[in-house]
Amino acid sequence: MAKLKNIRNRIKSVKSIQKVTKAMKMVAAAKMRRAQEHMEEARPYANRLSNVINHLLPDVDRDLLELLDVREINRVGYVVVTSDRGMAGSFNANVLKVAQSEIDAIGKENVDVFCIGKKTRDYFKKRDYNIIESHTDFWNELNYSHAINIGAGVISHFTHKNVEEIHVVYNEFVNVAAQNVRSEVLLPLVFEAEKVQTVGRLFEPNKEDIIKSLIPRHLNIQMWKYLLESYASEHAARMLAMENATDNAQEMIKDLTLQFNKVRQAAITTEMLEIVSGAEALQN
């Protein structure tokens, strides 16, 4: 009877966990839809702004802005974007694995790390990497001001010539079932596409003033895009992880129920044999 009670308690525990994972899946799905809407609204603007700068940049002097200054690389900054919470499958682990691999290839003594999310901060702090800034506990209230504040620290670190390059590692949202880890160079701004012919176009006031106006805005939009992509990817990954956990719990309940029935049947059979044996003993 003790074994039957243990199995019954396990079934009850698994059912309770299944209710929790199912609820977490529903919450993640609702948050993901909202985050996906915001991300899809920001993408066209970010892409169009990049295209405009790409058209103008070849025609202006790169000494115009410090943000365009291409210097010999001695030290690199890395912005690593993860979540504050776990239970999202390999969402955080994939980003941290790529980031650490690239940083170690450069040499961690030559890298400054900007940690976005508790998972990044805890991971690199535990391993004694050089952390410049940490930004946590803002995801639930995520808005454009967070991108501006984070971007200000990153840009300042570059313009003060503490580093010669800034890289960003984050999860790019592809669809609900897939997120790709991306590593991009944020600063200095270098576009590899071929120069676009702009003959016949007039620019007011002039190309230099337009570049000065657009580039700071572009960097803020890029940082906003990284945050939105990561936030949507996080909830998509958590929704999928909780769905898998719910399915696994259901399979476990089936296995435990089958085991429970077998043990109960064995107990009943044993009791019947004892009754029959006792009856036969009394007759003899």
How would you describe this protein?
With 284 residues, the protein is an alpha/beta fold. The relative contact order is 0.18. The mean pLDDT is 86. The chain is built from five helices and five strands, in the order αβαβαβαββα.
Can you lay out the helices and strands and say which pair or pack?
Layout: H1 2-56, E1 76-81, H2 91-106, E2 111-116, H3 118-126, E3 131-135, H4 144-159, E4 165-175, E5 178-187, H5 207-283
Helix pairs in contact: 1-5, 4-5
Provide a compact summary of the structure.
By secondary structure, this protein is α/β, with parallel strands linked by helices. It contains five helices and five strands; from the N terminus they run H-E-H-E-H-E-H-E-E-H.
Keywords:
284 residues, alpha/beta, Helix Hairpins, Pyruvate Kinase, Chain: A, domain 1, 2 domains, 61% helix, 13% strand, elongated
Largest sheet: 5 strands, mixed
Number of strands: 5
Helix content: 55-70%
What series of H and E elements makes up the topology?
Answer: HEHEHEHEEH
How much is the radius of gyration in Å? 29 Å
Let me know the CATH homologous superfamily of the largest domain: ATP synthase, F1 complex, gamma subunit
Q: Choose one word for the global shape.
A: elongated
Please identify the structural class as seen in this structure. Answer: alpha/beta
Widest β-sheet, arrangement of strands:
3-2-1-4-5
Domain unit count: 2
Task: Give start-end ranges of low-pLDDT stretches.
Answer: none
Average pLDDT, all residues: 86
What is the distance, rounded to the nearest whole angstrom, between the alpha carbons of the first and last residues?
31 Å
